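Bumping with the actual sequence this time:
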Amino acid sequence: MTYINKRKDAGMKMSLVGIVINLILFIGKLISGLVAGSVAMTADAINNLSDFASAIVILISFYFSSRPSDREHPFGHARFEYVASAIVSMIIVFLGFQLGFSSIRKIINPVLINPDIFFYLVLIVSIILKSYLYVRYRREAKKLDSPVLLASAKDSLTDVIASSSLLIAILIGQITNKSVDGYAGIVVSIFIVYTGISILFKTSNRLLGVKADKKFRNKIKEFILDFDGIYGIHDLIIHDYGGQNYFASAHVEVNAAHDIKLIHELIDHIEREIDFKFKIQMVLHMDPIDLNDHKTERIEAKLLEIIKQIDDNISMHDLRIMEDKNRDKLIFDLKAHSGCKLTNQEIRQKIADKMEQIAPKYACYIDIDRNYEVDTVKVPFDPELTDQLQNENN
């Protein structure tokens, strides 16, 4: 059985557990709420009905998200889970507002409820079962990397808090002989709406595309750099298509003096190993570097010194020198990290001004990006070469 099928089976089984538990809780809360005349309990029953519907949506989402790629969807259907998670979150928000309006009416027209032993028993059982669902949903969500199960886990935790708040409020009402049912409903509705909105925002981020986890990125970079013949890595981009379905690309620095066929074999081998170890379809681009080009080393050392003076949040890679009859061209890429406050034009101008002072024979052509991974260099440059560039131009 493939990983996708195992994932589908695990997700659908978890969905069925949620369907059964939420249906039982809906029936129990609806009966006890109507008998006791509690708007908060009845609203909580409707909330469980929405959870029942959400579990069905999750069941369907796991079925569709496990479908293989096709002509229209070459990267698979796993992101269907994000759509399902958004649907679940909107249902949660809608029911939260409905509960809030009902609770306000209850506050305006308070009625003291008379709960029986069945009422309290239903609430206690609800807290226990929802706590169980929270633990199960959360564990499966982490194991399957499932946003829709994580959304259900958070919803279950909110239900635990809501039912606990309702139980406390009813007990206070019985002790003080005052109706606090409406106020309890307001508290429950706030929890429900907050949970729904937070789930919707997180799901939207996943749909729009977010940066992969830093530890995950570092593992991939370290894995690549461990191969002999790789001297650096940069521009690592990881695309997440849901359900642990990843596509990635990166630039790796290799020795320009080595046989191109051997380097190509090495790159292919690394791509296969990444697919085997991380389940990532990786495409690596070769950047040849001349390890014996001391002129380039001196220029790079000086450029790195200049960049450090301008802003510590900027790194450099892919330096190339193109000779020209008028002025030689320095072509290189910069990575402006999140802490860099300078604009691209300001960065270019500051570097150009500095180079004009120390090495006017060179013209800088700079490509600046702000979305790729941190440049990682494996081979250090000799710091004694730093000042030699200026001496050559004097």
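The tokens above came from a reply further down the thread. Residues 3-208 form a domain with the Alpha-lytic protease prodomain-like fold (CATH 1.20.1510.10).
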